[in-house]
Amino acid sequence: MDMIVTATSGAGKKILDIMNVKPGCVITDVARPLDLPPEEVAKRPDVLVIESGEILLPGKVSMKNIGLPKNVAYACLAETIVLALEGRFENFTVGRNIEWEKVREIYRVGRKHGMKLAAISGVNGPFSDADIRRVRKLALAARAKAAEAAAEAAARAKARAAARRSRAAPPASKAPKARRASKRSTPAPMPGQQVAGAVASRPRARRTRGSPRPGSRPRRCGAGPPPQDAAP
């Protein structure tokens, strides 16, 4: 996720594992006590953890040290101050069932009395522009490293799949090659020579009806006289 808002009453319980957050994520910790203590935030310098819910009060404010910069109060305390300035002594937003209309109303009344959001702060105090640039630089480097590792893992998986397919494929037969080789080495047959169960033939001359076959002796027809050179 790119942004997480946590507002619980965990009081010491582990609400969020910051090691599972993507680089560059912005976490707004509204809970008091914080859901992410300083030792947890220090594990991920590539994540921006904001202590939200702090209001800058107008004028000169005299109050005890509550661990915040001068004239800065928690939002819950600022809401009480706004209600007192309005003369409204009531429970405005308590518990989990908070209506959006009341959120809009307290924001409008707070702006009326000159209140505004305080500077973006973390566990070590307000963030400067240099702090935000440093977090962004670390986040980009972490994302590039993660993308490179993912590409290498995908390449290894592809190579393993190819190796499995190669081992599973049956061996190729060499018989067709041998037949092709023997066919190439056989000389051309001579006319009339028998090749592979067949006889090489050549075209025969056609003869007309009644003509003798080539190479045959003429036959006598009827009872004609014998040849002159025949014996009596």
Helices and strands in order:
Layout: E1 3-6, E2 26-29, H1 38-41, E3 48-51, E4 54-56, E5 72-74, H2 75-86, H3 100-112, E6 116-117, E7 121-122, E8 125-126, H4 129-168, H5 175-185, E9 194-195, E10 198-199
Parallel strand pairs: 1-2, 2-3
Antiparallel strand pairs: 4-5, 4-6, 7-8, 9-10
**Number of helical elements:** 5
Structural class: alpha/beta
Major sheet characteristics = 3 strands, parallel
- Alpha carbon gyration radius: 51 Å
Terminal Cα span: 132 Å
Widest β-sheet, arrangement of strands: 1-2-3
- Give the beta-strand count: 10
Give the H and E element order. Answer: EEHEEEHHEEEHHEE
**Proportion in β-strands:** 5-15%
Q: Mean pLDDT, as a whole number? A: 80
Low-confidence stretches: none
Percent of residues in helical segments? 25-40%
Overall morphology:
elongated
Provide structural commentary.
- 34% of the residues lie in helices and 12% in strands.
- It is α/β, with parallel strands linked by helices.
- The strands form 4 sheets. A 3-stranded parallel sheet has the order 1-2-3, with no helix packed on it. It has a 3-stranded antiparallel sheet with strand order 5-4-6. Strands 7-8 form a two-stranded antiparallel sheet.
- β9 and β10 form a beta hairpin.
- The model has no long low-confidence stretch (mean pLDDT 80).
